[in-house]
Design brief:
Layout (H helix, E strand, L loop, with lengths): L1 H29 L4 H15 L9 H23 L1 H15 L8 H10 L12 H14 L5 H13 L6
Helix pairs in contact: 2-3, 2-5, 3-4, 3-5, 4-6
């Protein structure tokens, strides 16, 4: 009986070792997506659903995907700037995007990326109007925000010359 116990114990140790080695080899594939990456995948999915047609969020067909994207935007940005400010900023984006090509939805992701500290100047573009809207949003939300976060975001806007206007 003890021989079988030793055999199973040795088998378990070998199996465990093989699993650890396999996990270490494939670990880059198990790393989860960052929240902003997931948000961009949701944007991409919605953009593809328009099949190159102009963005419209009116009616039953446009409301459900828009609601999912709004909820995702709010879940990313509301902890930073507050739910009211995040909702207002999201409405600004959707009003600005109405009638444009589906690729324009990326702007919503760029704004979210800026607010959560994931903005990349090399791959993401916002126009002057967007930067001004971010400045106004931060000014409006300043009473509800963490001071360190507010200082960091306003510093980013200062570096871009947005506060000079």
């Amino acid at each position: 009986m003890s021989l079988w116990l030793i055999f199973y114990f040795q088998w378990f140790i070998n199996f465990f070792h093989v699993c650890c080695v396999a996990l270490s080899l494939f670990s880059p594939y198990f790393i989860s997506m960052k929240p902003i990456d997931h948000f961009f995948s949701q944007i991409d999915s919605l953009a593809r659903s328009f099949r190159g047609e102009a963005l419209t969020f009116q009616g039953e067909d446009g409301r459900q995907p828009k609601d999912r994207l709004v909820n995702a935007f709010l879940s990313l940005t509301a902890p930073v700037i507050g739910k009211t400010a995040a909702g207002d900023l999201c409405l600004y984006c959707f009003d600005k995007l109405e009638g444009k090509k589906p690729e324009a939805l990326e702007k919503l992701g760029f704004i979210a990326a800026f607010l959560i500290g994931e903005y990349d100047d090399n791959t993401m573009r916002l126009d002057a109007e967007d930067w001004d809207e971010l400045k106004e949003t931060l000014n409006d939300a300043s009473g509800e925000m963490n001071m360190d976060t507010l200082t960091e975001l306003l510093g980013e806007l200062l570096d871009r010359g947005v506060l000079d206007n």
